[in-house]
Specification:
Elements: E1 4-7, E2 14-17, H1 26-39, E3 41-44, H2 51-58, E4 80-84, E5 111-118, E6 126-130, H3 131-136, H4 140-146, E7 150-153, H5 156-159, H6 165-174, E8 178-181, E9 183-185, E10 192-194, E11 201-204, H7 209-223, E12 229-232, E13 239-243, E14 247-251, E15 260-267
Parallel strand pairs: 2-3
Antiparallel strand pairs: 1-2, 3-13, 4-15, 5-13, 5-15, 6-12, 6-14, 7-8, 7-11, 9-10
């Protein structure tokens, strides 16, 4: 049976129906890869995957990375466990601002594949923003100003409080400051996307602090435009793929104190240009 594709808005995002991720033909894999490039975010419902099947499906899109810091699955290091509420003891949900994943690395991930494992009855959605359309809508002055700039990304911007003092130096050595283009060109589609984010972008290089803050705020405002966003409601049989090179995302913390557990694989990427 041919898969059915339903667009989620006029810019990006699609729900793919009538497909079983546990049993894919080579043509279905090729089609999904093409759809992923076209739509940037794919929502796949009615998928009951084990952790092993999640990993096997993810490997069709590239080699998988092990997250350098996060809570990893006890039996599968390729799976990042994102869990809050319930009996976990974690009463805060940290991913509540727009970001691209792991941009503090020299080669940030190509994309991520997330699935619901324990989903609260209400809340806990994930929102996605089209960073290509956000770039397209920048005013001409801002677009010209940032077109050739780079920005410094720093793991410590968001996470400085989670390390003991003795670990800071070794972590900085392992994950030094890295610069990426403010506007990233997609290596496969050629589209240009905003690649600064609130989690890890510390400052724009080569301009004074005030100008950096002004430009970062304009880029953030462009990402925050609701008309270029989609919102995904989860259940335990939903899988979502997104392209980290041209999409930003944020979660909602409106489910606490209920229990929410998500599992994510992450696909290795290349150096932005």
């Amino acid at each position: 049976m041919l898969m059915k594709v339903v667009r989620l808005n006029n810019f990006f995002g699609a729900e793919v129906q009538e497909i079983d991720l546990r049993d894919l033909s080579s043509k279905a894999i090729d089609d999904l890869q093409s759809l992923w490039l076209e739509h940037k975010v794919l929502v796949l419902r009615n998928q009951s995957l084990t952790s092993e099947q999640h990993i096997n499906f993810s490997k069709h899109f590239g080699d998988l990375e092990t997250h350098p810091f996060g809570n990893k699955h006890v039996n599968h290091q390729e799976i990042l466990v994102l869990e809050s509420g319930g009996s976990t003891g974690k009463i805060h949900y940290s991913a509540t601002d727009w970001h691209s994943d792991v941009t503090y690395r020299e080669k940030p991930p190509m994309g991520s594949i997330l699935r619901g494992v324990v989903v609260p009855k209400v809340g806990g959605d994930t929102c996605f923003a089209d960073a290509v359309e956000a770039h397209n809508r920048l005013d001409s002055e801002t677009k010209k100003a940032v077109s050739e700039l780079t920005a410094t990304h720093d793991w410590f911007k968001k996470n400085h409080q989670v390390l003991n003092k003795s670990d800071i130096d070794s972590t900085r050595k392992k994950y030094p400051l890295v610069s990426h283009p403010v506007i990233r060109k997609h290596p496969e589609t050629g589209e240009k996307a905003i690649f600064t984010n609130n989690f890890f972008t510390d400052h724009i290089d080569g301009v004074d602090e005030n100008e950096s803050n002004i430009l970062l705020q304009r880029l953030e405002n462009a990402i925050r435009d609701p008309s270029i966003q989609i919102r995904v409601r989860w259940d335990e049989a939903t899988v979502v793929l997104w392209d980290n090179r041209c999409v930003q995302h944020t979660g909602t913390d409106d489910f606490l104190p209920a229990h929410r557990r998500m599992e994510r694989t992450t696909i290795l990427g290349d150096r932005p240009f």
